[in-house]
């Protein structure tokens, strides 16, 4: 006898609490896509980007040279806005200058009504001779009151962690204590003065040095507009490191009067843990070039309200690379995202989120330094109070000495920062084993039938999009503009993993019109007579489960969450995201935590069926579909390579493997005509690394199996040369038949300033040589094996047994290639001469 027993179908209770859950369409856990699918929706500049407030150095002399002007914006409970500028206060050509933070406030609904509150914390002394004398913490007759909240700190970031005990977190460089090793953190209550200023700065004036947490690095050689984020109970903060090439040109002999090596910027993340405490810390590079014209200057992570279970977004201030006259030294904003808070990537490389004006006289023609968004201000009257408002520092001048920024504003619509766009219909699928062979069902999005049947539960998604058709009472064929989402239980072996149908909805324009809606909309999709917003399909699924085990009683209370696949069709629309409403018991039906935490191996494996082949092999990653926390061999901030080859002689330099974007930017391993092996990194047409290992004197690698490893990983992950404590690239060559092994580190140019480097010099030098890998080259999307181009120029005439690119070498001393159960599925071999990786 078949039975289906559902216990407590409409009365399931839960003690957990959650809000409605919003997810962005650009979260690859729910919607796998390629870069070309991404639409960046720029915010609207208020008054064309003109200053809301301009510097006035005649009345306020500490505004004479704001330079970077790194902003942080806050809103108090009354909707008052305060913008904190971290900048120079008094510049001195002879250090030290006076640096610090000033605040501008607006307690009205008028965007033009800004004030510089007289705070009584610091005063300006016009008669002062030095920078320190001009800004003083004590008052004397004749001194001018100021709006300064802090002095002697730089690159300030302010973050509200949402907690109740000292939730306001500051991260900064303590100028006088810095020593190229230390950063400072300070915590304060979420309390404001009557003028909207964080009141904790009063205590910070007297107790900063005693109460601040000291974060000690091995070295720091850069820091710009840092900020905090808190992910899964752990604190992280963003910062930066600067790099310069290790390969010197002929005639370049240090020390240099002026360093001839170009500076390159790289963004970093530092993990602290569950509490902000004084401790020794370290950073990891998370962002290199977006394109060869734009490099990261700083990054501000944030989440929109309601998106706490979704991706992190980041506002990456991009710096125009020198050598491109139209854009060099400009600053603008791109969007970056992360599923796990540690692995970041550009959403649409080279496409700005907030761009400079094209008018040379505009206030934001030269530089834009953006703050994380604020909400619920008095300026939000008449619009959604959760629309993000982006205050930014803007200047006509590019990033050059003497620029003096003011405050500008750009506004977006809630949830509509970026999305997936299609004209002809495109279909997107959520994370599943069908999307990536490394994915298991435990890492897929999950659907809770228990929560779906809770009181007042709406299990289906509501859709946010730029859609110009209303699908009510229409079929799919009758629509010219739509976003349609269907949910399926996962079933192994089917196309895209689609199993039992669970429900489906359309997004919509404003009902009855062709006007785009800014609300989340859900209109039932009817399939086979089943209305997609009812629970009919769910009951059918439960019955099917019961039919498979006719003697088993099925209880929703004990029914495990099921892996699901979301199928999304988009046509003539932009799809921004979905919302799952909470039920009466505060639960929602869909969970993507496991998918957000998916951790791919990051192994790229080339293992041909025959080690000698006629044509070169090409892997093209330009149209790769995104998965969470994806590791792409051509875009790794750090990593390792292992090659097993048998070289043969030729009259030219042979290329074994080459990653490239163009002829001026590539990374290669070569067998030179002189018999040496070379690891070669070229950036902007100039050697950045040129590391070579020759065979023993009188010997040759020709006709002998040779193993080459490259490690551009942190010391704790390094396999070879562990006694060498500097974190640079390590090259190793081993030839067992010659009983030969040699290891060399990347050169660190210690004496770039003087014959006897100071500790400061050493900090800079270490940062300059810090672990460059494939992402550092920038703009690379292809790997060629067996030559230097798709045409197989500089062909390698020996044997290639195996090549792996991975996050690090395996610890096993017996081998340097990874082996695991799913490696075969991700192996790139000679089944295709050229493959576009999707």
From TrEMBL:
Signal peptide range in chain numbering: 1-18
Keywords: Signal
Protein name: Six-hairpin glycosidase
Species this chain originates from: Bacteroides eggerthii
